[in-house]
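Side project, low priority. Logging it here so it doesn't get lost.
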Amino acid sequence: MNPNTPLSPRPLHHLSEVYRRVTTTARLRSEGVSAAETTEHCRPGGPWQQLLPGVFLLHPGPPTSEERLHAVLIYAARERTAGVPAQPGAQGPRRPVYPETMITGLAALALHGFDSAPSLLALDRIDVLVPRLRRLRSTGCAHIIRAADLPVPEQVTGLPVAPVPRALADAVAEPGDADAVRGLLTEAVRAGHCEPAAVVRELAQAKLLSHPHVVDAVDSLLAESRALAEDRLYRMVREHGLPDPVWNVDLRLPGGPHLGGLDAYWPEHAVALELDTRTPRSGDRQEDDAVTSEYARKREHLERLGITVVHITPRKLRDTMEQQATVVRTALMASCDRDPAAYVVVLPR
């Protein structure tokens, strides 16, 4: 490759050449390029340029998105062997390894395919997640975010990228446009990137749930999740030939206490269905346990009255709708083999 030849931008899925175009002082030195020669090549109008401390781009002109991503990872990982040219007879350069380093924030969401995230080229900075004790400072387009415990990165276009919940938490950590934050969180659920509970858990761990620009966005996230689950529930009943239930009802004993709300109820079969959309807002394990206990008490009370309760999570409804329909159908068919249920009053919720 001629280092004086400008390279045109390449799509994100094509990453082989970037290992040669982005390099470090150590790697240049290993190729016999002195510090003085590197400085000379990086003068204004020269064939190379310095992107970050110790990280160089071996062509003039603006860096592509993939070049910036690799430059940030190289800088943050202090990786010394990425992109070393292959030995004679080898099949191209080695794929770089970036230990304990991953792209996060808006750049990660763009890599995950979020339509509501800015394009990589539009980002002035790229967030990169590193261990808390790593001695680095943010500079240029590299914005360092530290964490005591790093999540397991996902490989996206050959790059280590933070999982969506963590990337979302890092993307909304700084006060910003509330509408933009709401768009990111709701897209996470609408597009099936992750479950709302995982997002809320990350936001809670980052102590963001009290921030004004996050509170309303979380409400929208949970409402979006609930609406999608209800729509899938209607589809399940319709597309899998289940008898029509009464929707969104409260049950009460005659003249007695409230038994709880249900998403669907088949009175003639005494079968109840509840969408399990539990999402504790505090991230507190005790709160999670309390909510779980409340669900269990409600189910046990109804079943003591002879009412079969089917719990379905939004994820199961999304991923295994036919299987969930079979569970409901089996419960309906089994009703004739059970003792009659107690009489309950059914009220609209």
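Brief comment: The chain has three domains: 1-97, 102-227, 240-348.
Revisit when time allows.
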